[in-house]
Predict the structure of 2-amino-3-carboxymuconate-6-semialdehyde decarboxylase.
Amino acid sequence: MIDIHAHVFPRISREEARVLAGAGEPWLREGMMMSGDDDYRPVTPELWDAGARLAAMDRTGVAVQAVSSTPLMFGYDAAPERAADWCDMVNDRILAYCAEDPARLVPLCQVPLQDPGRAADAVTRARAAGHRGVHIGNHVGARNLDDAGVLAFLEHCAREDMPVLVHPWDMMAPERMRGHMLPWLVGMAAETQLGILTLILSGAFERLPGNLRLCFCHGGGSFAFLLGRADNAWRRRDIVRRDSPRPPSAYTGRFHVDSAVFDPRALRLLVDVMGADRVMLGTDFPFPLGEEEPGAVVRACPGLSEAERAAILGGNAARFLGLTESAILA
């Protein structure tokens, strides 16, 4: 199994986090993610200890993880020059973490997306240093993925042959989603659908290079379930189809999603909408809302052939990440 969606928070001190100068300043206290002086979330050693992660992977049968930063670490609210320094430091720490077993831990870099030029430079540096992909949020403040600067950055990723993992963060309407983890249960799904639909309905996919590899986390959020609504709106309203020459369902071949939907029936719908070649195992490891038994939902999904299960559990991610069979088996 290859897990496309697994997070890391490498050891970063309070003093090192000050480079972000008030923009969240995330750092790691043993057993606790911190934001400035505030406790943010209790965490387990797998998040910062590569040995503990590899032991967990052994227990659950995961051969390879694509390791991406915890979204709290993006630093998008910081001044661009500070964010660039921060991302370089985080990326170095991720590389050091993955060096514990480079055949099994695949590093994804993060970038100062608030400055697309600096973000592109960060990708080039990270690729040269050994990162195998890029991890970004689904928006930067009020700018969605169809922002001209973000699109230029995605074009750069395509030129660099760097796949892009898109994760929801900084969820909408926090004043209406208080308690019960509603930002994670409702906001993340909505943010992810918003990211996908802005790329489709803006016509961005018509302009982005066809070799761009994009994956949206959490099964693409609400996208698959509400795709019929989007297609219906495209057919009936010219303001919906103004910039998109084809209905939303025509673009499912332009991106991937992970399998983190936690219900075999939901995964069946996701595969029907996206195709078995566009879904990859994703667990959200090592967080409590992640898939506790990696691959269980894929194995329980009705109607999949053995070849389709194998593709979702690992083959699709190997192609997405550009991994060779010899590297996976090493």
User: Anything to note?
Assistant: The domain at 2-10+56-329 is CATH 3.20.20.140 (TIM Barrel).
